[in-house]
Design brief:
By secondary structure, the chain is an alpha+beta fold. The chain has one domain (about 5-70). Helix content is about 35%, strand content about 20%. The protein has three helices and three strands; from the N terminus they run αβββαα. It has a three-stranded antiparallel sheet, with helices on one face. The longest helix is centred in the C-terminal third of the chain and has 11 residues, at about 60-70.
Length: about 80
């Protein structure tokens, strides 16, 4: 979908979960914030390897993030 920045901002509600991922060569960082920019869980840092991804997906923070995501709206 082709939205302008204002149209994207208008889609965000108090039930929206925003997930940002900083992709890097060796380590990635993921964060989840609410509509006001408050952190919902501690940032997730994981290595750019399959074992690194598997390990991070089993962490407590990742599980909390997934639970929060299931309760939120999604925007395409």
């Amino acid at each position: 979908m082709d939205f302008t920045q204002n149209q994207r901002l208008m889609q965000i509600t108090e039930n929206t979960l925003i997930i940002g991922v900083d992709i890097a060569k060796r380590k990635h960082v993921a964060r989840a914030i609410d509509d006001r920019g408050r952190d919902l869980v501690k940032r997730l840092v994981f290595e750019n390897t399959l074992p690194g991804l598997k390990h991070s997906s089993k962490s407590n923070d990742a599980q909390t993030l997934l639970l929060a995501w299931n309760q939120q709206d999604t925007i395409g």
